[in-house]
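Researcher: Please predict.
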Amino acid sequence: MGSKYQEFHRRSIEDRDAFWGEQARLVDWHKPYEKVLDYAKPPFAKWFVGGEINLCHNAVDRHLKDRANQPALIYISTETGEKKT
């Protein structure tokens, strides 16, 4: 895992826009972004400028077609041993 993770991390820093653009293509966008990063006024950054995303859709809804029979949420309390699905 080490070298693969290190390469992944290195690219996220050294080739920031390309790396995060690739990651952004792995989720569904309600409205596509126009620019990965606007860093015109450091230290303030605007990520995925112009884009709109629905986090609930990406976290749950888009997976229903292939994974509807799998649990969406699993709760395990390490203090009480209680488990809920």
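Model: The chain has one domain: 2-84.
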